[in-house]
Specification:
- The chain has about 300 residues and is α/β, with parallel strands linked by helices.
- It has two domains: about 10-115, Glutaredoxin, CATH 3.40.30; about 125-305, Glutathione S-transferase Yfyf (Class Pi), Chain A, domain 2 (Up-down Bundle), CATH 1.20.1050.
- The chain is about 55% helix and about 10% strand.
- The protein has helices at about 10-15, 25-40, 80-85, 105-115, 125-140, 140-155, 160-170, 180-190, 195-215, 230-245, 250, 255-265, 265-275, 275-290, 295-305, and strands spanning about 20, 40-50, 65-70, 90-95, 100.
- A five-stranded mixed sheet has the order 2-3-1-4-5.
- Strand 4 (about 90-95) and strand 5 form a beta hairpin.
- Helix 10 crosses helix 12 (about 255-265).
- The termini are far apart.
- The mean pLDDT is about 95.
- It binds glutathione.
- Glutathione binds near residues 27, 141, 178 and 180.
Length: about 300
């Protein structure tokens, strides 16, 4: 699996064992934590994301060291983090000094390197179908961003002009593959038309309908009766959208049932929800209140479906 050759930051090279740069509420990091849990690797001690003291760099047998990059405090938009991840997004994984980026590549790496049931099926046809579903989920990631920022985070996620200047400056050093600069510019200035948000919501709605109909054959998980990398990608979308008030159960009942099966797994409970429960409850309450006033994501989804 492609590791990053010669990262700009000296931090990854100093780390021993497994270290995950992540944020509890970020779906892209949650799917990697889920995969770690499925591989029997539990969250270990917490370290500051940029700490390289003698004890902070140590690994923990059978566990991964948690290095939180706060998306709220904007740790990901600092020069220190931009040197670890040029796109300034989470997650990033380090294993014995080697740096891996991109949640899909990280999960593939974990699957190849650690034991447990495979997350990527070996049988060629199923493997191809699984990776196609994962690619589709990757493409929909932008839609999740638009929908959850608009109907979930609201003003909380807007950047002030100073923060936007800093982001632009740091982005020049990276590829800005996630287009954070242009997104935050439009989002913070409120220049993204409402129709764009609704289009992204409609894309998600269509994709969920499609996956919902596939589940009607009674399979336990998205691709078969075994959990796979596709479950890791799609379940985190549902988690995030439920937090924002998407009425998943009403519109996609089979998908909701499947999500409950994933949600019940120890890897989801411990590694995904773990320290995310309070935030999850706060978002859900906010969404319920907005829905009471008739202006939440629930109403938007009902309108897309109509
Ligand atoms: N393709 C990347 C996407 C990473 C990504 O977009 N991460 C989000 C969290 S889910 C992030 O860090 N966003 C920072 C922001 O929105 O400011 C991956 O799958 O690893």
């Amino acid at each position: 699996m492609p590791k990053v050759e010669q990262p700009a930051s000296p931090i990854p090279g100093a780390l021993k064992g497994l270290h995950l740069f992540h944020f509890d509420g970020a779906p892209c990091a949650q799917r990697v934590r889920f995969a770690l849990g499925e591989k029997g690797l539990a969250r270990g001690r917490e370290e500051k994301f940029d700490s390289v003291t003698r004890t902070a760099v140590m690994g923990e047998p059978g566990r991964w060291v948690s290095r939180i990059v706060s998306l709220v405090k904007k740790d990901h938009m600092t020069r220190t983090y931009a040197e670890i991840h040029p796109n300034m997004v989470v997650p990033a994984l380090v294993h014995d000094g080697d740096l891996y980026l991109e949640s899909m590549d990280i999960i593939e790496y974990l699957d190849e390197t650690f034991g447990g049931a495979p997350l990527i099926p070996a049988e060629p046809a199923l493997r191809a179908a699984t990776m196609q579903r994962v690619e589709q989920a990757k493409e929909l990631h932008r839609s999740i961003r638009y929908v959850t920022f608009h109907w979930g985070l609201g003003r909380l996620a807007m950047l002030n002009p100073k923060e936007r200047r800093q982001l632009t400056e740091l982005a020049h050093q990276g590829k800005d593959g996630e287009n954070l600069v242009s997104f935050y510019e439009g989002y913070s200035n409120r220049t993204i038309p409402e129709a764009v948000y609704r289009d992204h919501l409609a894309k998600l709605y269509q994709a969920f309908r499609e996956v919902n109909s596939e589940l009607k054959d009674g399979r336990q998980f998205l691709m078969s009766d075994e959990v796979s990398i596709a479950d890791a990608f799609w379940s985190m979308k549902i988690l995030r959208l439920l937090e924002c008030g998407y009425p998943v159960q009403n519109h996609h009942p089979d998908l909701y049932e499947w999500y409950q099966r994933i949600y019940a797994r120890p890897s989801f409970q411990n590694e995904v929800m773990g320290k995310n429960r309070l935030t999850n409850r706060a978002f859900r309450t906010k969404a319920q209140i907005e829905s009471l006033f008739g202006k939440g994501l629930k109403q938007a989804v009902d309108a897309v479906a109509a």
